[in-house]
Design goal:
Layout: H1 7-30, H2 37-51, E1 54-55, E2 67-71, E3 74-76, E4 91-100, E5 103-112, H3 118-136, H4 144-157, E6 161-162, E7 168-170, E8 177-181, E9 198-201, E10 204-206, E11 212-214, E12 221-223, E13 229-231, E14 234-239, E15 242-245
Antiparallel strand pairs: 1-4, 2-4, 3-12, 4-5, 6-10, 7-8, 7-9, 9-14, 10-13, 11-12, 14-15
Helix pairs in contact: 1-2, 3-4
This protein binds 2-amino-4-trifluoromethylsulfanyl-butyric acid (MF3) and cobalt (II) ion (CO).
Length: 254
């Protein structure tokens, strides 16, 4: 069943979501060549404590870390490690969820390590554009498939593919709620969007084929063909005034 949220519940989610945004923004200063991905985890934990939120992913279905760190051909769910060192030209997907006053919020960004080549910049732009367009389609009266279709067409018209094996989701008192929000599909398909629905929209886009596989660690999803993958995500609310992004930094600074 789909749980619609009241205005008060949506404000709680936006408070938690603001902490998520601040943590992800801070990582622009942490992500540098030579830095082990375990440093990202330590900073996420430090900021979670100072902002008064609980890192939602740690322990979720046995996931071992507070933040997912997925480099280059890693699509999602990479595990931070002291042995994994960031290199110039890498792209680093960071996915973080907060639990705050009974509600979850979830967002992801992909950050460059130093300067990227033009092709990779383009892939990043298309992924950001896909999320933007998906969010804009999250209006009352549209259906889930309108979000899915707009994401998929933007990505495929730009020459890339959308991952099918992982999908966006409803979010609220649980990290994953109904409905699923695939990054592919037909317009006017699926449930109708109503005021109070809260969704995590999260395009994962590959430079090459859409196929993915999971590494022996049981978590890290990588592209089957080794091509680069980019992930952006926001938690949003469907409101009478249009989509409201809940994972935005409403404070500035730390
Ligand atoms: N944003 C992802 C999701 O919605 C990451 C959470 S999965 C976890 O599924 F297991 F790593 F927590
Ligand atoms: Co998510």
């Amino acid at each position: 069943m789909i749980h619609r949220k009241t205005a008060d519940q949506i404000s709680l989610m936006s408070e938690g979501g603001s902490a998520v945004a601040r943590i992800l923004e801070r990582m622009k200063d942490v992500v540098k060549p030579g830095v082990p991905t375990s440093e990202i985890e330590m900073e996420a934990d430090r900021m979670s404590r100072s902002l008064g939120i609980v890192a939602a992913f740690k322990g979720y279905l046995g996931y071992p870390s507070s933040i997912c760190v997925s480099i280059n051909d890693e699509v999602v769910h990479g595990i931070p490690s002291r042995e994994r060192i960031l290199e110039k030209g890498d792209i680093v997907g960071l996915d973080f969820g907060a639990f705050y006053k009974g509600f979850y919020s979830d967002a992801a960004v992909t950050l460059p390590v130093g300067k990227l080549d033009e092709k990779t910049e383009h892939l990043m732009d298309v992924a950001r554009g896909a999320l933007d367009r998906g969010i804009k389609a999250a209006v009352v009266g549209n259906r889930v498939g309108d979000i899915s279709h707009t994401v998929q067409s933007h990505v495929e018209n730009s020459g890339y593919s959308v991952v099918k094996a992982f999908v966006g989701h409803g979010i609220g008192r649980s990290l994953h709620e109904e409905p699923q929000v695939p990054n592919f599909g037909e317009p006017q398909w699926g449930v109708r969007l109503k005021e109070g629905m809260t969704l995590a929209i999260e395009p994962m886009i590959n430079a090459g084929s859409d196929q993915v596989r999971v590494l022996d660690d049981g978590w890290t999803a990588v592209t089957a063909d080794g091509s680069l993958s980019v992930h952006f995500e926001h938690t949003i609310a469907v409101t009478s005034k249009g989509p409201r992004i809940l994972t935005l930094n409403s404070m500035g600074g730390e």
